[in-house]
Write a structure and sequence with these properties.
The structure is a homodimer. Chain A is of the alpha+beta class. The first copy, chain A, has 7 helices and 11 strands. In chain A, the strands form 2 sheets. A 6-stranded antiparallel β-sheet of chain A has the order 5-6-7-10-9-8. The two termini of chain A are about 35 Å apart. At the A-B interface, helix 1, helix 3, strand 4, helix 6 and strand 8 of A face helix 1, helix 3, strand 4, helix 6 and strand 8 of B. Chain A binds a DNA duplex through helix 3.
Chain lengths: ~250, ~250
DNA sequence: TTGACTTATATGTCTAGACATATAATCGTG
DNA sequence: CACGATTATATGTCTAGACATATAAGTCAA
């Protein structure tokens, strides 16, 4: 059948589309606490009746809310407001070269050290692997307009990424190389603050004892560790910005 | 028509569903660099032919990739791999009380100062408003198992949230109160590192000069500022963790 | 050449209905 | 009462087709 006569779906008046309205309605009820954590959201067929639309339209709204972790959907049981009422921000951490060039500044890269070796026990602990294999250990520095931007200390597991043995990290930063050669399936960032030690201060050209933002990133492909990297940014100048929308 | 005879959609063999397979296929091509930024992804009707499925199935896969900012979709033009090839992490920043209780530790809260006043010029600059209205300024401390966890310095715009004038911030932390009373539509976090000054060191019970992680959060409802808050965490012990999946 | 108008097309949204699947709830049985 | 089998039900996925809308591309006149 044609629906044009049944249901106006025109957007000529500038109103948001129906599924977005449904999504916003539910989202608002959750965020204001009207529907607290654990509350059961009306069934799809009830929302169909309330909004006079098809199940796919309701489903699209609920799917997006589930993807955003605001609700939890369980077969047969229903749909519920998730317990930890948290804010959720999409933090975009670009490849450093892309980040710097996007700011309109010139990107510089210096390899400090690159060593291929059999994994030490410290390496194995850092990568979270138990068997001894080969690794590549890299220390390097990124700069913007010739000012130090971040120093990087990285370990790549060659048993997961054997191709990395042939990459030329004197020319291409390891982060860029990995991004373009290895698909990751999971990653974890940990952000913390430290004060600069002797070596870091020297490499970033800041004072010993100055604050640094530290990002530790682990990347996996399936169940295998790809790389572990620690980045030091000068804390006075660098900022991580995460902007996000609730509606 | 029924499709059961045309197209097996059974998942008995444990295979992922079709739209997820399409999404993963495209995602892998993007993340390996096979389809670089700017590359045009096949049109929906081409993907329909390739995967022998309906347009809605292809559309669901592409919509999710667009939501994840991996691709950009433009009417008439097509679908393209987005330019800044970035990692994207969902950083979940819970309400502090929820965060602490989720760790199985006892939550403590002390109001240090709470002042209702007409906005000073510094207040207006911080909130990003030009007109002089009333604000609430709050300083407080959160602790876990009686150890200082974070100190908070907050400004609430009463012209946006007049109800906040009647809230009792001596009993309920302002973050929790706001989360349950005010729907936000947009927010921004900025994460940086500093060293503890005299006052912060005293409030967090750490040494002057010790590293602190600082989170600045601004929250808006529509175009109106709701609140601006700055949180200081002891950098040695606190970590922000963002775990995310690429598949 | 340039700007206004028209057209073609790819995505955006929506429908009514189908089958698939996990699981809460119920029912029987030892 | 405890526990395994059955049933009902809400969500998960998918289809074929329709109309809506933004806009790239082509057309034509000033």
């Amino acid at each position: 059948m044609s629906l044009a006569s049944d249901q106006p779906k025109s957007n000529a008046a500038g109103k948001p589309t129906l599924y977005k309205r449904i999504r916003l309605d539910i989202e608002t009820r959750i965020l204001t606490g009207e529907w607290p954590p654990g509350h059961r959201i009306p069934f799809e067929h009830q929302l169909m009746a309330r909004y006079r639309c098809s199940r796919m339209t309701v489903n699209k709204a609920l799917s997006e809310l589930a993807q955003a972790d605001l609700i939890e959907r369980r077969r047969r049981a229903g749909t519920f407001v998730r317990r930890p009422q948290h804010l959720s921000a999409v933090l975009k951490i670009a490849d450093i070269r892309a980040e710097i060039t996007a700011l309109g500044r010139s990107y510089g890269y210096q390899l400090i050290e690159c060593q291929r070796r059999t994994a030490t026990s410290a390496d194995r602990a850092r990568l979270g692997v138990s068997t001894a294999g080969k690794v590549v250990a890299i220390a390097c520095r990124h700069s913007a307009d010739n000012v130090p931007f971040a120093v990087e200390d990285r370990l790549i597991d060659l048993s997961t990424v054997p191709e990395a043995a042939d990459a030329d990290f004197a020319r291409e930063p390891p982060g860029s190389w990995l991004l373009h050669h290895v698909p990751w399936t999971e990653a974890e960032h940990t952000i913390s603050a430290v004060v600069a030690d002797d070596r870091t201060a020297k490499e970033l050209d800041i004072a010993v004892g100055a604050p640094c933002l530290v990002i530790d990133r682990y990347t996996w492909r399936s169940a295998r560790t790809v790389t572990a990297v620690r980045l030091h940014y000068p804390g006075e100048t660098h900022r991580l910005v995460a902007r996000f929308k609730g509606g």
